[in-house]
Amino acid sequence: MSSQTIPASILAAGLHALELDDAVPAATQQRLLDYLALLDQWNQHTNLTAVRERSAMVTRHLLDSLVLLPHVRGTRLADLGSGAGLPGIPLALARPDLHVTLVDSNGKKARFLQAAIDTLKLNADVAHLRVEALRGSFDTITARALASLPDMLRWGGHLLTRDNIWLAQKGRYPDAELAALPAGYAAATLPLHVPGLDAARHVVIIRRSDTGSRHAP
């Protein structure tokens, strides 16, 4: 990176705490650090992330993305509002068999995403468009701090079928958003424990439902 190397030990310890040692071996961990180095390089002239401290980037970008790995299903994933590639790029690095579509309407961010794909040789592509315009079939949909649950489903609900899932990352338990979930969707909310992160994290797992809107803790 620009002045220091990223502390690889923080990543290794975090993955151990998440019980992902076998799923993310040493060679993949190095590729994850290469991604952060590229992100830091681009961040010098393009505002992609406000997180700049090295250990914080490992925790808040890599571990906060990889905590979703056990919940990802299938082999095709769409990462909506991907921004700097989170959580899509860490998931693509950890799962080379997973084809990831990184979706962002911002031109600068889309250019970075394409550069990351080319540099890291990812099994991924960039969709430089608004979520509403995305078409395709995906096994898993991810969104990290994109919008409220009702807004996310209003924009991207057409992507959700009875055969796939949506993993929406949230901070605190989103009571009000769950209460406003549109009819036709079912949601289950699970706490996420990100090593080194002293903040609440949850994943809302959304599916199509035939019985109207409902949610469970």
Automatic annotation (TrEMBL):
Reaction equation(s) it catalyzes: guanosine(527) in 16S rRNA + S-adenosyl-L-methionine = N(7)-methylguanosine(527) in 16S rRNA + S-adenosyl-L-homocysteine
Keyword annotations of the record: Cytoplasm, Methyltransferase, rRNA processing, S-adenosyl-L-methionine, Transferase
EC number: 2.1.1.170
Top-level lineage group: Bacteria
Pfam family, one: GidB
Broadest EC class assigned to this enzyme: transferase
GO cellular component, one term: cytosol
Annotated compartments: Cytoplasm
Binding site for S-adenosyl-L-methionine: 81, 86, 131-132, 144
Record carries keyword Cytoplasm: yes
Major localisation: cytoplasm
Molecular-function GO term, any one: rRNA (guanine-N7-)-methyltransferase activity
Family: Belongs to the methyltransferase superfamily. RNA methyltransferase RsmG family.
Known role: Specifically methylates the N7 position of guanine in position 527 of 16S rRNA.
Xref: HAMAP family: 16SrRNA_methyltr_G
Protein name, entry field: Ribosomal RNA small subunit methyltransferase G
